Amino acid sequence: MKGIVCPILTPFNNDLGFNGDLYLQHARDLLDSGIHLLSPFGTTGEALSMSLEERMNAVDCLVDGGINPSQIMPGAGLCNFPETVQLVRHAMNRGCFAVMLLPPFYYKNATDEGQFTYFSRLIDTLDSSHLKICLYHIPPMAGVGFSPQLTRKLSVAFPETVIAYKDSSGQMEHTLNIRSSAPGLSVFPGSEFYLKRGLENGCAGCISATCNINSQAIRDVYDIFTGDKQGNLDDENAKILDLRRKVDTYSPIAVMKGYLAHKWQEERWRNVRPPLLPSTIQEVSSLLREIG
């Protein structure tokens, strides 16, 4: 598992119901621009504002719409075990390449041993050689994460199942600790801020929200590093970092949806689910001026 992964934004109608047509259009555009994998229902996709049925319907929308399921890695981790099993099983049944799983959050004092027990039970319950898991480490949001010790233990116990790690801690030191603790895993920094340095240290690529609006440029940096494309790596890397910094001065999910509303000339793209609020016209106009 390697490359550039997009945690795809989720479009909503004006009544805040899921819009499958816009979703499929955006997914096709991302893959056409060079994204290796789509990851529905990470933080960027407003996953925890959506029901189980909506999330499963959205995966169905992609697969039934012609997206190759080998290019789909849905987020499926919830607080409770039964619904996590349900989401993972559905993704497997639709042929998805892998699933991305949060640790069981809410209980902030959960130990590594408790989390290992949870994932062991999950893997045993699903009992499938087709199950592939990317661990999703985002303690600023989840409150708990995957330590290097726990990651190593899961990787050793389930080497054919636990295959990847998304690090959204924003701490490159942690990313490098995971690389050394579990060298068999494909490790993905959760932002293009760390794409180049991560690749230089054996990481597999990145999983970044701004792939939704800057996919080709991020893929270019990856391809220049791997030798699949000619170009100045430092210059191209500086460009994607500059855009990311500009997006991060706003509410990123909302302003990127505003950007897509402008790109597709479709105002429904601006819709977000509360407690998020839509970006203003002024914010989107400002971002468009800044990024040219």
Give structural notes:
The chain is of the alpha/beta class. It has a single domain (about 5-235), classed as Alpha-Beta Barrel (TIM Barrel). Helices cover about 50% and strands about 10% of the residues. It is built from twelve helices and seven strands. It has helices at about 20-30, 50-65, 80-95, 110-125, 140, 150-155, 170-180, 195-200, 210-225, 235-250, 250-265, 280-290, and strands at about 5, 35-40, 100, 135, 160-165, 185-190, 205. A four-stranded parallel beta sheet has the order 3-4-5-6. Strands 2-1-7 form a three-stranded parallel beta sheet. Strand 5 (about 160-165), helix 7 and strand 6 (about 185-190) form a beta-alpha-beta unit. Helix 9 (about 210-225) runs antiparallel to helix 10 (about 235-250). The chain is globular.
Short description:
It is built from twelve helices and seven strands.
Keywords:
292 residues, alpha/beta, 12 helices, 7 strands
Strand and helix layout:
Elements: E1 3-6, H1 20-32, E2 37-38, H2 52-64, H3 81-93, E3 99-101, H4 112-126, E4 133-137, H5 139-142, H6 148-157, E5 162-167, H7 172-181, E6 186-189, H8 195-200, E7 205-207, H9 211-226, H10 233-248, H11 252-264, H12 281-291
Parallel strand pairs: 1-2, 1-7, 3-4, 4-5, 5-6
Helix pairs in contact: 2-3, 3-4, 4-6, 6-7, 9-10, 11-12
